[in-house]
Amino acid sequence: MNILSLFVLVPLLMLLGLWLSKSINQIRGVMVAGSTALLGLAVALVFMYLGERASGNTAEMLFMADYVWYAPLNIHYTIGVDGISVAMLLLSAIIVFTGTFASWRLQPLTKEYFLWFCLLSLGVFGFFICIDLFTMFMFYEVALIPMYLLIGVWGSGRKEYSAMKLTLMLMGASALLLAGILGIYFGSGATTMNILEIAALHNIPFEQQCIWFPLTFIGFGVLGALFPFHTWSPDGHASAPTAVSMLHAGVLMKLGGYGCFRVAMYLMPEAAQELSWIFIILTTISVVYGAFSACVQKDLKYINAYSSVSHCGLVLFAILMMNSTASTGAILQMLSHGLMTALFFALIGMIYGRTHTRDIRELNGLMRIMPFLAVGYVIAGLANLGLPGLSGFIAEMTIFNGAFMNDDVFHRTVTIIACTSIVITAVYILRVVGKILYGTCTNEHHLKLTDATWDERLAVIFLVVAVAGLGLAPFWISDMIHESVLPIVSHLALN
Amino acid sequence: MGITLELIVFLILAVFIVASSILAVTTKRILRAATYLLFVLFGTAGIYFQLNYSFLGAVQLLIYAGGITVLYVFSILLTSSQGDRAEKLKNSKMFAGLLTALAGLVICLFLTLKNTFLPSHFEHGELPVSAIGMSMMSGEKYGYILPFEVISVLLLACIIGGILIARKR
Amino acid sequence: MRPELSLIAVILLLFFFDLFAKGKARDYFQPLACVLMAVHVLVNVVPSREAFSLFGSMYQYVPMMSIVKTVMAIGTLVVILQASNWLVGDDTRHKQGEFYVLLLSTLLGMNFMISAGNFLMFFIALELASVPMACLVAFDKYKHHSAEAGAKYILSALFSSGLMLYGISMLYGTTGTLYFDDMAARLSGTPLQVMALVFFFSGLGFKISLVPFHLWTADAYQGAPTTVTGYLSVVSKGAAAFTLMVILMKVFAPMVAEWQTVLFWLIIASITIGNLFAIRQQNMKRFLAFSSISQAGYVMLGVIGGNAMGMTSLVFYLLVYLAANLAAFGIVNVIERNSGKLDMDDYNGLYRTNPKLAFLMTLALFSLAGIPPFAGFFSKFFIFMAAFSEGFHLLVVIALLNTIISLYYYLRVVKAMYINPSDAPIATFRSDGYTRLSLVLCMAGVLLLGIASSVYDGIHLFSFGL
Amino acid sequence: MEYTILILLLPFLSFLVLGLAGMKMSNRLAGTIGTVVLGIVAVASYYTAFDYFAAGRGADGTFPTLMPYNAVWLPISESLHIDMGILLDPISVMMLVVISTVSLMVHIYSFGYMKGERGFQRYYAFLSLFTMSMLGLVVATNIFQMYLFWELVGVSSYLLIGFYYTKKEAIAASKKAFIVTRFADLGFLVGILFYGYYAGTFTFTPQLQMLASAGAMIPLALGLMFIGGAGKSAMFPLHIWLPDAMEGPTPVSALIHAATMVVAGVYLVARMFPLFIGYAPEVLHWVAYVGAFTAFYAASVACVQSDIKRVLAFSTISQIGFMMVGLGVCTSADPHDGGLGYMAGMFHLFTHAMFKALLFLGAGCIIHAVHSNEMSAMGGLRKYMPVTHITFLIACLAISGIPPFSGFFSKDEILTACFAFSPVMGWVMSFIAAMTAFYMFRLYYGIFWGRENKELHARHVPHEAPLSMTVPLIFLALVTCGAGFIPFGEFISSNGQSYTIHLDSQVAITSVCIAVVAIAVATWMYLRERQPVADQLAKTFKGLHRAAYHRFYIDDIYQFVTHKVIFACVSTPIAWFDRHVVDQFMNFLAWCTNASSEEIRSWQSGNVQQYTRVFLGGVLVLVLVLLLI
Amino acid sequence: MIQMEYYLVVSTIMMFAGIYGFFTRRNLLAILISVELILNSVDINFAVFNRFLFPGQLEGFFFALFAIGVSAAETAVAIAIIINIYRNIRNIQVKNMNELNG
């Protein structure tokens, strides 16, 4: 069996296991076993991948396998990974693993919660291993729909409204996406759904590309919080339970960027070049706008959600720069943002679980009360504002360098505008840190609160290590990504 | 084209049918409506006779005039109640109905009359009943054995259904 | 004619059983009906591969028709299973025989309708499919709603068949034949023929409940007994949709531009208006009625392309839709039987008391909404693909945008069951074996039809001959 | 010289150990770990310096540039990559010495100063982190590594300023420091991006033909980089964070905000000096103008401040201005011909680090003794704290430019370079030097002489600081006394060749005279209990005095810009726009759908006749559509 | 000799008279009477077309014949349902038939 298929099989087994489990301990057992297995698989995959590459395998995708599914429609279950997908799989595995621990004590309906959680991760993993348009799209939607129930049932605040809004907006986007995918399929002669083959055919007429590219890009872009389609994100994140926020910001939003890159840009390079300016403007707005919005938010999760808008905007911004450096940066940014946002949401969830408020006006002096969480929060914040040694820095720097390689005035201008976000990021991060962690606690009720429990510590430490690991030693992953980005970028540069 | 007997008969029939149809849908008393319907059906049968489709005319008289109208009369008598006669129409509703119907009439008539049909070759002479019977029982092309069987199922089902609904329990 | 003959045999057996069975033997009525239907399905499950015609082209056969008939028979079997707990009620216990005969004769009508090769045959079959249906709709005759629904249904049906007949008469007048094959050769698209096409179309549009011929749908669905509603929404609609495709493709091939235009607008109208009405429905049956109107619009996407892919995806869509929609109706039915509740608000908190039912309902609704990995996603995707392949890009995009609205209202139900709090949720109950069997069948369809591509491939193998 | 890696690794390890396990340690252990590690680092640094300079000059008469380590850390593109490594050349070695010395002193000093503070371990962890980053900054092999550590020192500065995180002012100050420098770093970053693109490399020695073809882009890049430097080095108008940064513990101020981090900007300019001189001399002159104005501005503000740490902070700003001027007035790379300023600037950096650290540490002792920063709480402390008094005086003399203290030599070189550049610049700087002497002695008298706050001192008798604090003072005082005699030009000069410092007697005499006069004025005004002249002056120039006291309202302008403009006019409207326009638009779509659903409700009236009417209407419309279109 | 179109005019008028009645009558039975008009008019069409245009085969004739039969069956069922309504609410006015709406 192909190792990649295991990424789908394990969540399926987890679903089965959960279905059969009777007690909370069995559920936890299944989840821990499953998520650990996934993490182990991802790590193993990284090493196997690097090993293959080191032994001189230069194929665009490795570990390919192809099973015909719907022969009349050219739909196959085709799997394969390159450096980008490997990185994303690793990210997803980490988030799922930590997410499990972050929802260790979730009540009620624990079993159902984990069932949907597993379904979501099934979709995510499937999406990243597939290179068949249909199958990819299918997994994409599989990943989206559990969000509704996860937020709606286990969320907080205006959960119903948020869940509905999120689901409808994302599904609306995927409706556009579906049109885009059909356009690609038929535009390329309706002979194959395989991304690699379509790219090799490279025969979608330009006029058609100009229709399908925007649809596809927006379709994926909504999930990547592209302005002005990002409004699901603040409400959705604010209402979601901790682990769901983690998964959503950490992994799901990456589906958007990955899709934009792998599908929209790769398959329709001419239109991408022709129309990139529109989306560059939109993403630049996202970057700055999200950061500015975050400056005045009062809810911790809103701050983080807007920050995600800004950071994910940077991902899309980078891939639109259409060179290998910026694209590498985009993938790094996905990784980095995934990890640190997950960390952020985990911490916010843990703080919220204790204080029952996320309003920064009501929180202060937490550093004294829950030092572990507070320090974690500071680290997450520093990662977010691009502190060297943590993951944010390398990603942003790669992006900015890459963006700067386009030497016309337009690209330069937007790059510099995008750069300003690092200052604004500092403003809102420090504002929050200063308000909620520092100072003296005035709320008597909060004084009695306890610091993190072991499961929470495990999740936080794991993520912090990942963030720092990526930030301190970026070269191996950057190389891996860079060489995988090249085929796509060179495809873009063909014209 | 001179005025022939046929034409006169047709014109009388036509006026009779049209007048009765309109009266059937405008009269305020429902029993009269049923009566006008009967007139229309008779007129239609007359047209069939004129077309030399005596069999069809006979069927028309038997089933419609003889069967259905009676059914109507019975059920009208069965269901008549106080409010029936004082039927008052809301103007707007009548107007909307009239408008739609008239529009439809105009469009259909316009299209029908504008259409050039194949040249007609009216053949006098009665249709032999044996030919009808042969066709009815034939399984070849232009034979109607299958519809005949199916309609029998339909009639059976309708009988069962009608009884089911109409019976006391 | 295998399906028709075996069906007639089933009808006759049940009819005679009804006539002669007395006392305790009548308890075996349901099992008998189910077994007979199952036998009927099994007998016809493998289509013969040759296309042929009988009775001088009065009856036509291509393998695809056999598949559709089998699908409809499966649907009817499921409906019969679901009808069990309703039929054993005091009101209806003594009417079982009539129910089966009427139900199966409509099915017979549909079978003939699908295979018709002549407009006369088609007309009679259509009437056979719809007149007894009126009796079924009015089956709960002591309930005013049922009677009202029956009246509305039969009046609308009469009106529509009047218009359709008018259309057929004009077709006859301009071509001189009622045989499908001959007519196709003689149609030229004159204005009168265009008019006749539309009038004819409205007759089938009525059965499929396409906007603007749909207005009876919600009322009839709401008033009719729930199992009958399920039958109406799936089997009757599916057969009509397939027939429409057959006739449009076979007979009206010379007028393809015209009927594509008609379908184009009707699809948009059906999907959109069906959705718009569905979003504020409270009654579950009415809600599903509007959902089925919009689903009908999606089904028509398979017709408009007029190619083999469209045919395959249409039949596949019908199959999937059958599984999902009958599951939904089955659950609505069993809840109605056990608690008498039909409002969406009554479903609040259903998950707490009847988790399995709520879960199954969720799966069914997700499938209807087209969410993977449930079969509805696949069927929707394929049908979009079919329409897209013929260049109906705008139409597909509009239909896709409408899926958002439909997702909204399907999620409303999910929300009611999982999220909304309730003071008095529906009490926990255990549904009867027949219903459970039917739900298992439907769920197997919902879960497997998409994942297992063999079903689609099988249908695809037979998508020739039109 | 592979052992140099220890200089970076050891503090980092110490940071990790203290940061992760610090909570479990006793204060003493944590402090000892930090201090011992720093001691090793200092020794390593000295040894490096010795090793490096002892190895002698290369064939071309310059000290060779060594790179014991350099590895690709993050590849950017085929040609461009960010490296991590260690670069040794005269200025980086000099900086190693300065940093490790001051840092070691501060570590020792903090033992006494921070005794019993909550978060002692954390403090030492942060100090280690800072030291590591600062050392990393100076040994950077490329501009990007420098930027990387640049950010790290920013963060450690943030953490240390905000050390007393329960204090409102400290939180605000740390935030301000970080954000202002971050803003400046934006310029730095963009500059680097320009540089990287046009020079094709991040190293300090780009290929010349690349530069030649870049045209005006290299000056632009260098100018942008200088913005970054100006932020870190608190050049006007980006200086506002530094005075507030005094909210941190005083040793931190000594280390970061006086001796090391704030001169990073100067170091940056020095690092890029060959490029400045070669490709952007006009930008370099702008550096000088900015430096001069900052020096003047800060000096004038320093004259009226009453918080001793603020006086020292402004004095730091002013002195950094001097260094910038020194670098900026260079017109060529030859120290004999207009390139003297480079050496002078670096020399001043060196000496200033020592005496300013001394001043701050001294101020720390004083604050430790009277528990206040305000001059009003002091006066007459010479009786209580003799060691502090003497060392402080030495530092004051040094900064005022009185021979033979180190400040005299370095400042004199700068003035010489200024006069060589233009007489106006020379006189301006001389005047500022006089102001320096004046405010320093105002400070000195205010603390140790002048009006004594007897009330307070009676209640709480000031005492001399413990040994751990006075030892660093004495050490630094000794350095200050002796550093002037180091033949600095032998080691560092603008073109790397050996350069023998010789005093320009004219300039030297002038500057000493000016300084003496200024000190005399200060003595006259502030020595005694009663200070009629000072009070009178303050009264006469009330407006000016108040404006200067409020730092010419620059902070208020910033406050206005950030709160009223950025927050109120940009962020809030954007957030509002997001919620009420973008988001509402989505809700509006939903509302539209619902509304249209309500609107068409009447179609489904329940009346079968109406149904069929619609039915027929639909048929007719379709017929018409088909026939007419 | 009579033009075929004359018959068509008569049948069309009858048809739309029926439709008008369908739209405006208040009584269910009256509506059903209108339906009879509609169906009847179509039968005329078939017979006329058959006789005038395509006398070779009896297609129209048979269609009319079967249509009469079918409409009789339909009418029977419709009347049964209407009578059932009468039994339920003692009234067969259309205005009482809109409980299901919206």
Can you offer a commentary on this structure?
The complex is a heteropentamer of chains A (495), B (169), C (466), D (629) and E (102). In chain A, strand 1 and strand 2 form a beta hairpin. Chain A has 21 helices and 2 strands. Chain A has a two-stranded antiparallel sheet. Chain A has one domain (3-493). In chain A, 77% of the residues lie in helices and 3% in strands. Chain A is globular and about 70 Å long. Chain B folds into 3 domains: 1-87, Four Helix Bundle (Hemerythrin (Met), subunit A); 89-117; 127-169. Chain B is built from 6 helices and no strands. The termini of chain B are far apart. The model of chain B has no long low-confidence stretch (mean pLDDT 85). With 629 residues, chain D is an all-alpha fold. Chain D is 72% helix and 3% strand. Chain D has helices at 4-21, 27-54, 90-113, 120-138, 143-161, 168-199, 208-214, 217-232, 241-244, 250-259, 264-271, 273-279, 281-302, 308-328, 340-370, 386-400, 406-421, 423-448, 454-459, 467-483, 488-491, 505-526, 532-540, 542-549, 554-599, 608-628, and strands at residues 66-75, 81-88. A two-stranded antiparallel sheet of chain D has the order 1-2. In chain E, helix 2 runs antiparallel to helix 3. Chain E has helices at 4-24, 28-52, 59-89. Chain E is an all-alpha fold and 102 residues long.
List the helices and strands and how they pair.
The complex is a heteropentamer of chains A (495), B (169), C (466), D (629) and E (102).
Chain B lengths: L4 H22 L3 H21 L3 H26 L11 H24 L14 H8 L8 H22 L3
Helix pairs in contact in B: 1-2, 2-3
Chain C lengths: L1 H19 L8 H16 L7 E3 L4 E3 L1 H25 L8 H20 L3 H19 L6 H32 L4 H7 L4 H18 L6 H9 L2 H25 L5 H23 L5 H22 L2 H32 L10 H4 L1 H15 L5 H15 L3 H26 L14 H19 L2 H8 L5
Antiparallel strand pairs in C: 1-2
Chain D lengths: L3 H18 L5 H28 L11 E10 L5 E8 L1 H24 L6 H19 L4 H19 L6 H32 L8 H7 L2 H16 L8 H4 L5 H10 L4 H8 L1 H7 L1 H22 L5 H21 L11 H31 L15 H15 L5 H16 L1 H26 L5 H6 L7 H17 L4 H4 L13 H22 L5 H9 L1 H8 L4 H46 L8 H21 L1
Antiparallel strand pairs in D: 1-2
